[in-house]
Structure formats: C-alpha cells, structure tokens
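Anyone opening a protein record will find just a pair of labelled lines. A complete record is shown below as an example.
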Amino acid sequence: MQIDNSILTLITDRPVVDSPATLRGFITGKFPGNPLLHNHLDKGFIYTYPKVQYKIIKKMPVILGIDDASESIEEITLIEYLNLKGNQYIVQDWRLLKGVISFGILNKIVSYKFITPWLALDDESFNRYKKRNREEKEKQLESILIGNILSMAKGLEYVITNKITTSVNVHEVPTSLKGTPMLGFLGTFSVNFEIPDYWGIGKSVSRGFGTVIKMENRK
C-alpha cells in the first residue's frame, strides 16, 4: 500500500523540554476547526488510528500527518510560537518532508526500534502480564504487537491477508499518561511488515508514545 505521509519539524529558539501531550494540547487549541488535528468530532472521539501524531524528538517538536491528514498539518507552519504550560518557545523555522511511502505486509523480516515508550498494556493485560514468567511475558507482548499492527492497518483501511510474524526484545520503563504512572517498553522488534519511520504503535500514539524507526535508520 502506498500512502501519503508528511513530517513537520518546528525549529524553536531553544530545546523543548515539555511533553508531546502538551504540544498536542496547544496546537489543537489553535486549530479547533480541524478535527484531524485533535481526533475529535462534535459527537465525540474518533476511535481509529490517529492520522496526526505529536512527538518531541531530540527536543524538537515533530508532527506527523498520515493519509488525508498529510495536507492538514501544513497550517501548523503558521504558528509563530509555542506556549507549553507557561514555557514559551519561538518558532524560528520549520521543515516539512512530504512523500508517498510504503505500508503493509512484506515477504521479509524487518527490525525496528522504539524511540519512545510503547504502551502495550491496559489494566486487564497488565494484571496478566505481571503474573507470568519471562517467556510468557514475551509471548504476550508479541501477541499484543500483532494486534497493534492489525488495528493500525484497519484504521488505514488496509486488509492484511498474510500471517504476521514477529519477535520482541524490549525492557520495561516507567512512564506516565495524563499524570498516571504507566509501564512502558523500549527496545526492538522484528516483523514482516513495513512500518514507516516515526509512526506510533500501541496506545496514545497521538501523544507520542510507541514511536518506531527502522534499525538501519537508528538514531
């Protein structure tokens, strides 16, 4: 599958130390009329794979636009400053990379690295996870990763007809979501699936969690 993809990087006057969630809140507040930017409609939340994702990478704000949201993020270039919980950053410049990229099942295995924590577990799966041994935990995470990829594909209307094969090599890291402590994972995984750089996998990807890059593009 070929899909439109845009990556917008804002160049600020100093490194950004705030969270992607704070960045998301500020930008969506500036553009309330664009539902793709905040993943909401008048009737409520859009329950699908977020096509706009907010990230802080190397202390720089990065906004990802996927598919029909690829064009939507261009209006963010009009922003002259960021006010993130009282911390103000002047936007001195921006870079916008646009293109058509590949997404979907492969006939080979590709390795990826999480550059932000992967939120794999909800309350129910966490309770199962903490009772299991190391091998069982690994199998559970592999199953969850496959489910994450299936959900991502469904949200982009991509039909997977072949079996997904994956392996994970991750470690636990403490993180938080909306002020609530969470268990996240960093590390690597391999799968027979093309996932574009900087896309997120798992929960709360619109807030920067679960961001991946291919290992050959490791940074």
In short: The domain at 104-217 is CATH 3.30.70.1900 (Alpha-Beta Plaits).
